[in-house]
Amino acid sequence: MVEQSPVGDHNQRGVSIGLTAVIVAVTEEDPRVLVARRMTHDLATPAQQGLLPPTFDTPETLPFGPFVPEHHRTLELGLRQWVAEQTGIGLRYVEQLYTFANENRDPRELLGGPRVVSVAYLALGQEMPLAGSGEAEWRSWYSFLPWEDWRKGRPDVIDGVIRPALTRWIDAAPDARTARARMERAAIAFGPVAGTAHFDLLRCLDRYELLYSAGLVKEAIRDGVVVAQAKGTPVPVTPPEQLAAARALGHSMALDNRRVLASALGRLRGKIDYRPVVFDLLPPEFTLLRLQKVVEALSGIEVHKQNFRRTVIAGELVEATGQLETSGRGRPAETYRFRRDVMQEKHDVGIPLPLPKISG
Length: 360
Fold this sequence. Notes:
The chain has three domains: 6-146, Nucleoside Triphosphate Pyrophosphohydrolase (Alpha-Beta Complex), CATH 3.90.79; 147-248, no CATH class; 278-359, Orthogonal Bundle (Arc Repressor Mutant, subunit A), CATH 1.10.10. 36% of the residues are buried. The protein has helices spanning 6-13, 75-87, 156-171, 176-190, 204-213, 218-231, 240-248, 257-272, 288-299, 305-314, 342-345, and strands at residues 15-27, 30-35, 64-66, 94-100, 115-124, 137-140, 196-198, 286-287, 318-325, 333-338, 357-359. A hairpin with a 2-residue loop joins strand 1 and strand 2. Strands 1, 2, 3, 4, 5 and 6 form a six-stranded mixed sheet that branches. By secondary structure, the chain is an alpha+beta fold.
């Protein structure tokens, strides 16, 4: 007798393929991401369709839609169609970020809905006017991930909210082994509680996943309600300190879109070091100060002005235009352009970044 594979059960339940766009710009030193609020396709949440009050679930999401083989010749063309429809903009270069397929990543799967597999893409460009049906808006990246912005020093939210909340979570572990595992995750994501260690800029996804596991972001509280509804058990009562932490840890997003956003931030920060991604966020001609501010916006840290300029010029990443920018305040500054030839001349074309230090 052959046992039935659990894969068969999942196939009977169904799988939907979604397409998600992380569209990034840097405007006036503020890293921005494009979000949408209204949509009516099959993957849209009740809040996005206007069927649920935003007090339970936010409608804010990265632009997304289902892949429809009958209408979309490729995944990327489908993505471009949904972005144009919801935001009114046409994407230039995009690259595939990651495929998200975790069980119950769409909470409606707990209630019998399909497994939603989302293929996420990353696009960089300039902020531009919006239109379309999605009530789209440019939003500050760090309003969703406030613990990632170190440009003015160590974020207050880490010591004021995250550290105490993680300590309570560790202390509430059911046994010593679980407590040790939780402590190790916290140390990897935010640095050890005691001593001095480097804050790893690239572990953006690890930090979000940890905060979700500890129930410290609004999405975790929302999903806990859905789990209780699916099991027919009483809705858990969230302690006041947990609710306060969730309110302090940035705006929530629909589904697992903050997880997608954290993945994109980690990818971008990693690429700064070896690919010329920052130049896709700049106009054709720019000052070195403008370039520095874009790098700082993405990395979340300040860099030493003179060292930064020496690194950029020594790496032959830019060339002077012979022109001065006179529109800004203060003395006119020389403008530069990106040397695209450098991509044929060198294997790594990026800007090395220092790592900030944190103290326990």
